[in-house]
Amino acid sequence: MALLGAPCMQPLRSILVQHTVMTEVPMPIDEKIYKDIMSRHPGGVTVVTTIGTSGKAFGLTVSAFCTVSLHPPRILIVIDKASHTLSTLLASKAFTVSFLEEESADLAMHFASADEDKFGSLPHGSFIELDTGPALVGDATAYMQCRTAQEIDSGDHWILVGAVERGVILNDAEPLIYSHRQFRKMMPL
Ligand SMILES: Cc1cc2nc3c(=O)[nH]c(=O)nc-3n(C[C@H](O)[C@H](O)[C@H](O)COP(=O)(O)O)c2cc1C
Q1: 85 lines ligand 1 (CB under 6 A)
Q2: How far is the CA of 11 from the centre of ligand 1 (A)?
Q3: Is 96's pLDDT higher than 90?
Q4: Is 2.30.110.10 the CATH number for 42-180?
Q5: pTM score of the predicted model
C-alpha cells in the first residue's frame, strides 16, 4: 500500500541532500602543478575575524572568498582545517570579512602568522569591535558581517557560507591582490 504523503518526500529529500558522495583518487594531479595553476588565479585579500565565547577575538588572512548569492546576499570563505581560528568560527556561527586595501600587505602577513593574539599589537583605532568579530577599519576598503548559513566539510578545508547581515564601505582605495605567490596591486588596462 502506498504511504500517504510519500510522493511529497522526493522533492524534500532533494532539497536536503547537499553533497554528492563519490569515489575520489587521493592525488590525481601532480601537487606542484596543482599549486602552480592555483597561483595563476588571482584573489583579493581579506581578513576574516570572529569572537570566542570568552570574548577573545581570532582572525586570519583569507583569499578564498567568493560571492554566492544576491537574493539573499550570501558569500563563502574556505578555511584550512589546520587553522587555529577554525574551531571558533564553527562555534560562533558568525564572522566579519574585512577587504584589505593595496597598502596592507604587512597586515595580511600579520594575520597569516600563527600569533596567539593578533589584535594586541595592532595600533589603537585600526580595528573596531563588532559582535561578529573585529573589522580592520584602518586597512580595509569595506567590511561585511555574516552569520554562518552553511558549513561544508570538503577535503582539508571547510567551506563556510555566510549570510550577509551588514556591509560598510570605508573608502575607495584599490584592493590588495595575491597572485603568483606575491602581493600585487591592481593596474588599469
Ligand atoms: C595571501 C594569503 C591568503 C590566504 N588565504 C587563506 C585562505 O583562503 N584560507 C585559509 O584557511 N588560509 C589562508 N591563508 C593562510 C592563513 O592566513 C594562515 O595559515 C594563518 O596562519 C592561519 O591563522 P590561524 O591558524 O591563527 O587561524 C592565506 C595566507 C595568505 C598569506
Answers
A1: yes
A2: 39
A3: yes
A4: yes
A5: 0.91
What's the pLDDT score for residue 23?
A: 80
Ligand 1 atom with minimal separation from the 183 CA: 1
Cα–Cα distances in angstroms (integers) from residue 163 to residues 17, 70, 94, 149, 169, in the given order: 20, 10, 9, 6, 18
Q: Is the CB of 56 under 6 A from ligand 1?
A: no
DSSP collapsed to 3 states, 39-76:
HCCCEECEEEEEECCCCCEEEEEECCEEEEECCCCEEE
| 145-172 residue pLDDT tens | 999 999 999 999 999 999 999 999 999 9
Collapsing DSSP to helix, strand or coil, 155 comes out as: coil
Q: Is 98 in the pocket of ligand 1 (CB under 6 A)?
A: no
The reported pLDDT for the residue numbered 164 is: 98
Of 83, 87, 180, the one to substitute when testing ligand 1's pocket (max ligand atoms within 8 A of C-beta) is: 83
